[in-house]
Every structure is written in C-alpha cells, then in structure tokens.
Amino acid sequence: MKLHHYSMVLLSLMITSACDSPKTDKPEAPFVWEGANLYFMLTDRFNNGNPNNEVFFDRNRTTGKLRGFEGGDLRGVIQKIDEGYFTDLGINAIWLTPLVEQIHDAVDEGTGASYGFHGYWAKDWTKIDPNFGTETDLRELVEKAHAKGIRIVLDGVINHTGPVTEKDPVWPDDWVRTDTQCTYDNFEHTVSCSLVKNLPDILTESNENVPLPEVLVEKWKTEGRYEQEMKELDAFFEHTGYPRAPRFYIIKWLTDYILDFGVDGYRADTVKHTEEYVWKEFRDQCDYAFQTWKTNNPDKVLDDNPFFLVGEVYGYNIVGGKWYDYGDRKVNYFENGFNALINFGMKYDSNENYDQLFSKYSNLLNNELKDFTTLNYLTSHDDGQPFDQARERTFETATKLLLTPGISQVYYGDESARPLIIEGTEGDATLRSKMNWEDIAGNPETKKLLTHWQKLGVFRKNHPAVGAGVHMMISETPYVFSRVFEKNNFSDKVVVGLDLPIGKKTLSVGTIFLDGIKVRDAYSGKTVEVENGSATIDSEYGLVLLEEN
Fold first, then answer.
1. Domains along the chain?
2. Which residue of 71, 113, 466, 518 has the lowest C-beta tally within 10 Å?
C-alpha cells in the first residue's frame, strides 16, 4: 500500500468543506446509517466473476464439504453492482467478509480439511488474498458502489491470526499467546485467551515495542515491498505516537484500506475477546483515515456521515441497552467507538407479534440507545440456530427484518431462500452454501419471494423513517402503524398496513397524511387521495406501504 501523507491543514479544510453542502428547498432523503439496509455476504460464496483466480498458494487439498474456496470474488460483486441487483433490492450498504491474505494451508477439521475461504484466518493484513481479487478490483468495487449510493463495509480482525500449519508458522510469543484457551466464564477468560485451539491470540493488551514477525519480514522481502511497508510503518508510528505494539500494527494495516480505497465502515470481529479500549483506539484511526481520504478525494465524497463502526459482541442483545455482561463485569462498547452492535436477540424477538417487536425496538433505540443503533439479523454465517433455517417463513422473515427499527442485515440468499441445510456439511458450513442464482433465474416461486424483498427493501431505502424513525401503532385491527423521522431540515413519514385483506381495504392514517394528500402504496403501485383520515387501496396484496406521492 502506498505511503500516506498526513496533513492536519488539509483535514481542517475538508471538515470545513463538508459542512458547506448546498441547500435545497426540498432536500432528498439523506443516507442514515441508523436505518440502512445492509447486505452481508461471504465473498467466496456470492458470485464468481473471474474464473482465472481459483487456486493460489497450492491450495489443492481435498476439503470437507463447503470447507474450501468456491470461486466467489470481488469481480463477482462488481458484476452484480453493475447489473443493478443491489439497487433493485433496496440495498444501500454492503458488508464483505475479510479480504486480507489468508493462511496458505488448510487445517484438518472433522471429516476433511478447511481453508480460510471465509477470510477470518489472516496471514498478511497488508495484502488482498488473490482468491478474492486485487486492489484494482476493490477500488473499482468501491467506486461503482458509491456511484449507486451504496456504502462499503469491510470486516476487520484484530483479535487473532490464522491457525498454525506447516506453511503458516506461529508468530513470536511477544505477538501472540497459544497456551491459554478461553473458557468464557468471566472477562479474563474471554479476553486473555485463544478462542479455540490453534487460533493464536494477539496480545492486544501489550504496550511493548516489538519487531515484526520474521516470517512477515521475509515474505515482504520476497515480494519486493519490504522497504515500502517499513516506510509506511515509520510514518504511522511517528504520526500517532503509539508504541510499536502488536495491536497498533494491525490497526495501521486495517485503516490503510480506508485511506487507499475510501471504504465507509468496518464490522469489527470478535469484539468481546479484546480489551474495550482497543476499539476506541481503532475508532480514532478509522476517523482520521476517513477524513484524510475525503480530503485527498473531494470529488468522491458522498456526504458528511462519519465513519461507521459496528461490533460483533457475540451474544449481545438489544434489551441490554448499552451494556454487555461478562458475568463478573459489564462493558459499554458504545462508549468505546461503536455506532452499532450486532443484535443477536432479534431471531428470538421475531417470534413475537409485529407490534410487540416494532414497539420494543423503537422504544429502546429512541431512549437507552439514542444516537446509536443495532444491526438486526435473522440469519448469518455463524449462527447455527437462525430464525427460519428450513426456509419455511421466508415472506415473514422479509417483512419483519425490513420493517423493524434499526439496521437490517440481509444475509446473502435470504432474499432467494438459499438453502441453509446442506447434506454432508459439518458445523457452520451448512450456512455458507453458494448463492442460488439458478433459482432466481428459473424458479417462479423464488422470483415471487425476491420481488417481496425488493419492494420492502426499496421502501426502506427510500424512507429513513422505516429504520430510524419513531414507531407508533395507529390501528390494532387491521394492524396499521406509522414511522416518523426528522433530522435537521428533513422530515419523513410513512404508514404501513400488515395482514390486510386481499382486494379493497381502508387504512386509517392518523395525523400522518392530511385529507386531500395523495399517497402511493409502494407495494402495489396504486395512488389514492386521503379522505376522512383514511386511505382506501384496492390491491391483490395483504400489505400496504404508504408514502406521500
């Protein structure tokens, strides 16, 4: 990665410029992280756009089912951006699993070997794994996503290296611990330990100056970039004043992707397995890198949103408010740099009725979690007990996920009922099958489901009120509710009706839309005029999404 020239003068100019955005009488809906519609994919499993980058580093061992590289890459994501797939789905942010170079060998697990196709087994944070693509690919992906109003969130690992193999030697003991495995019964036994056997734990608590691992030095020299990497490190440590401790090397390497490519956010992996202050330090450097990138690329700046940081605190539930409880200690991660945490509780809350779910989340987000948010999901890459693993409640999944306050995380294939039960797989491999493009192309039922996700997703994207607004029930039977969002000079209001009769139905709109206002049902496309505080829609659907026409 190129050397970055840090300039506080330019940074100041950038901040001033960002604040001087042009004013309009009728501002467009702003992008609001609190109401984003985020698509999460395992890059290797989504779409193969370059069949020529299938095997590197002699990764030829026979693997367990869905435990090896399957060909998905950045070019495949670019293809779908170009085709408008994400735009049609109402997606305005994409989260990619880690792209950094993975260990070269496989590890033996269960009935077969496993490679680092998922991205969480880092070998070299400074380089994109060639199985995923190139720096040129990532730069094109970010630019094309931005051109369509889509933000890019990368996945960052600070807690551990990849497993040790014959081709991937362990790093020095002033970098990692390998002798203590987590038991998860208190704070120390969750933080100062290896998550699982043979996953070296970075000494994130260390403030000691340590040299680079010799294996990394030799690798860079062989690749002809040792001097450049050292020059960059010298500049980083001189700029920050940090000791050359393990976590700060990794923070530098991860924030380079912001400086070089202009990514908009990070999903931080295994957050609760490091000291909380690590993430505040990471946040500080993310903010600096993001503002520096904006300064250096004023023509590419989308808006004045700050850098976005969402944390995976495994087991965190929105009902905990700002706190995560280790048993012997509670930690507030929102005070340590995070805009949002992944909400592991929604899969349980979604068994409640619509208003119980919506009201609970709206109350929490507008009170205890005000100015912060949660990333809600119903399926993911490592949750072995998703909301609907058999894919029998796919329409309900879409309706609940996309209409619940907070950020919606669409896991790749949620919208197409990609199977989550794959015969012959072990563990989380069953959740990580290849994207079922063939069903989208040829199965009428899949197309019908996809259309449902698209209509709800576009409505959410067009209306910050859906995810970031205040929820209020208007009518219990039929079930009708409103969402209202106000920020600066922008106001957004919607009315939604669920479980309605097919054909003609009348919805009370409360005080949201006045008599005489024309409203459009974004689900059916019908437009009507509000009369006597109600809107009457005649459609073949039992769902209505009202917006001012």
1. 8-20+32-468 (3.20.20.80), 471-548 (2.60.40.1180)
2. 518
Instruction: List beta partners, residue 483.
Output: 471, 494
Q: Are the CB atoms for 283 and 10 separated by under 8 Å?
A: no
Going by their DSSP bridges, the two strands 470-475 and 479-487 should be labelled as antiparallel
Q: How far apart are CA 143 and CA 448, in angstroms?
A: 31
Those residues whose C-beta lies under 8 Å from the C-beta of residue 93, and which sit 6 or more positions away, are: 33, 36, 37, 38, 39, 150, 151, 152, 153, 264, 265
Q: Going by C-beta distance under 8 Å and a sequence separation of 6 or more, which residues neighbour residue 488?
A: none
Work out the pLDDT band at 34, boundaries 50, 70, 90.
Answer: very high
Tokens standing for 255? 């924030």
| Prior bond of 163 cis (ω within 30°) | no
Q: Which amino acid is it at 316?
A: Y
Per residue in 100-111, pLDDT (tens digit) is 999 999 999 777
Q: Give, as one character, the DSSP assignment of residue 429.
A: G
Beta bridge partners of 156: 268
Q: Alpha-carbon distance 383 to 13, whole Å? A: 45
DSSP per residue, 491-508: EEEEEEEESPPSEEEEEE
Tell me, what amino acid is at 278? V
- Cβ-contact 39, 94 below 8 angstroms: yes
**What's the pLDDT score for residue 2?**
45
For residues 132-154, average pLDDT? 98
For the segment 359-367, the average pLDDT, to the nearest whole number, is 98
CA atoms within 13 A on the CB side of 240: 23
pLDDT at 9 over 60: no
How many Å apart are CA 92 and CA 90, to the nearest integer?
6
Separation CA 77–CA 206 (nearest Å): 38
Maximum CA extent, the chain: 76
